[in-house]
Each structure stands twice: as structure tokens, then as C-alpha cells.
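Minutes, structural biology subgroup

Action item carried over from last meeting: produce the C-alpha cell record for Claudin (Batillaria attramentaria). EB confirmed the sequence was re-checked against the source entry. Recorded below for completeness.
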Amino acid sequence: MAILDLSLQLKVSVPCLLLGAILFGVSFSVDKWIKWSTASSSGFAGLWKACFQQSDVTYCYTWNSDTMDTFKLSRDWIHKSQALQCLGLVVMLGALGSTIVFIFIKLRLAVIAAVVTSFGSAAFMVIGCAVFASDVNDDAVYGTIADFDWAFGFNIVAAIFTTAAGVGLLLQTILHRTTTNTPT
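Output recorded by EB:
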């Protein structure tokens, strides 16, 4: 199958989905979701660890670390956000797989699965960000308020691209109803 043979909806949806997956993968893996600074220290954190900088030394701890208990941080919100983002990742992989199957085999069921998983992945990403954002400053470290960093923004942009891909794939199912449930 040549790229020129793809419909306009797929020519737009596939790059949106790929870009969303790349941005989401970067956001998911780095520790730059929030940052904070006080007169004596600063820090940054992501889904998986938090780092504190004092003088020229940086201390990093995973959110599940017993050391984090010394900071008296409630970690329920981070665990909820981690779970939602993990679900978003798994569903995103389903969206990518379904889209690939549809491109090469033209199964109508595959494009329907791609639509559902695209929207589902975006929903998990947005809800995970909402949980993270709503509770991150409840446990303000050293009495300071955290600012959102670039990886948090990547996650939001990834959800937007994934939603755009879902819309394009939905248009594909509506405008091209001639596709069958059997491989061609």
C-alpha cells in the first residue's frame, strides 16, 4: 500500500496519532511535570520520581520510596495519576496497532477499534493530568507552590493530537463505508 492510496482522513490521522504517541511517551518517562523553588532549595518532579536540589547537590527519590515519607507527602494522588497515565499508554498502543491493521488489511472493525482507543487514550491522559494538577499543590514542598513544567504540557498536547487522530479516524469510518469486515 502506497501512502498516496490513503484517504485524506488517514493522511491526517496517522501523523497526528504518531505525534501524539511520541509526545506522550516523552511526557510519560521524564521527571519534568512540575518545578518549584524557594530561597534555599528547588526541585522538580514527574510521574515516577521527585528531585530536590540544595546547593549543588540533587537528591532524587521515587514516589514509592520510604524516603518520601520523611517529607510527609500524601502519595494517593500521584498513584492515581500514574495508573491513569499507564492506562492511557496501553490504550494508545491499542490505537496504534488498530490503525496499522486497518491501513494494511482494511478491516472495518480495526478502524472502529482505532477510533475508540484513540478517544480512550486521550481521555485517560486528560483525566490523569487533571488528577495530577488538582492535587499537586496539596502537598506543597517546603511551603511553596509548584509550577507546571514542559512535560506536563507535552501530555496535554499529546491528548489533543490523539483526539484529532480519533476525529479523523471517525470521519474515515463515516465517509468510507465501503470497507468490509473481511480482508481484501
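Discussion: The helical segments are 8-29, 76-105, 108-135, 150-175.
Next step: EB to file the record with the rest of the batch.
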